[in-house]
Amino acid sequence: MTQTPEGPEILPPDLVMEKRPDKELIIRFSGIWTIHKAPPAFSDVAPRIRKYLPIKEIVIDTKGLKKWDSLFVLFLLELKEFSRKNGIRLNLASIPPGALHLLNLAMKAKSTRKVTDEGRDVPFFERVGKAAALIARQIKGFHAFLGQVVLGFMNILSGRSRLRTGDFLLYLQNGGARALPIVSLVSFLVGLILAFVATVQLKIFGAQIFVADLVGIAIARDMGAMMVGIIMAGRTGATYAAQLGTMQVNEEIDALRTLGIRPVEFLVIPRILALSLMMVPLCIYADLLGIAGGAVVGAGFSDVTLLQYISETQRAVPLKHFFIGLGKCLIYGIIVSMVGCMKGLSCGRSAAAVGQVTTSAVVTSIVWIIVACAIITVICYVYGI
Questions:
Q1: Res 300: pLDDT
Q2: The total number of structural domains that make up the chain
Q3: Is 237 a member of any domain?
Q4: Average pLDDT in the 210-215 region?
Q5: Which domain holds residue 253?
Q6: Same domain, residue pair 70 and 216
Q7: Between the N and C ends of the chain, which has fewer C-beta atoms within 10 Å?
Q8: 158: exposed, middle or buried (C-beta count within 10 Å: 0-12, 13-18, 19+)?
C-alpha cells in the first residue's frame, strides 16, 4: 500500500516512511533486517526519500525491529551520508546500542582514511613544502637519536650502565662470522670483474702488469670497504630494523621503558658497537679476496706471472691505502647500524610498517655510504692522502 507523500508509505520489508508537517521525516524499521531476508538497498530507498524534500530532520524509529545484522548498519551508514550531503539532521536516538556502536566505528574509520594525492595535480610549492617539512622532521629525529646514543655510550664508559655480554657476543657473531660467505663471494667476484675490464683495455697497450695497480688500489681504498658496507646494509642493517620494528609492534620496547630500561642502551648501543668492530676485519678479509680475484684474471689471462702480479701489487699499494679503506669501512659500519636501529625504533604499529622501515633502512644506508665515500675521497684528494 502506498499513500501520498504526506501519509505513511510502506516499503518492503517492514519499512515505513511518514512525513510530518514540521518538515520531519520518520522512518520506521520493523521485523527482521538481516542479509537472509534480503532487505532493500539504500539506493532503492533514496529516490523515495528525495520526493519528501525539503525536510529538516530524519528520525529513525526501531521499536518494531526484531533482528538485525551488519546490513542494517550499512543502510544507516548510507542514510547518514545522504543526510550530510543534503543538510538534514539524522536522529538515531532509538537505534540499538550495538548498531550505534558499529555505526560510529564505521564513521570513524571512514573519516580517518588517508586521502592520497593520486589523480590530483599537486601544486609545485605544496610538494616542495611537504618535502621540506619531511626533511626537517627527519633531521630533528636523527639529532634526538644521536644524542641518546652519545649519552648511552657515556653511561657505559662511566659505569652507570653495562653491556650484556651474551647479547654483545651474539651480535658480533651475526655481524661477523655469519657474513663471511656472502662477503667472500661478492669481494672475489668484484676483484675478478675489475681485473677483467682492466686486462681487456690495458692489453691493447701491452701494459697488463698495471692491472695489479688498478685492482689493488681500487679494492684497498674504495671497493672493498664499499662492498662490505653495502652487503652489511642489506644483511645486518635490515635485520636490525626488522628486529626493533617487530619489538615496537609487539610493544616490547614500551615494556622496557615501563621497567625503567633505556631502549637505546639496552638494544641499540650493543648493535652499533658490535657491527662497527666487525667491519674492520671484514674489510681486511674483503680486500685480500678482492686482490686474489684480480690475481686470478691478471695472471691467468695475460702474459704476467702470478709472482710478478704479487710483486707489482706490493709496490703499487702501500699500507696507507688499506688504512684509508679501513677507516671508511668503520664509518660505514656506524652508518649502517645507526640507520637500522633508528628506523626500527621509529616503526609504526603494524606489520606493514615493519616492511617499510626495513626497506627504508637499506636504501638510506646505501645512499649515505655512497655520500660518505664521496666526501672522504674529496678530503683525501685535498690533503694529498
A1: 79
A2: 2
A3: yes
A4: 87
A5: 143-382
A6: no
A7: N
A8: exposed
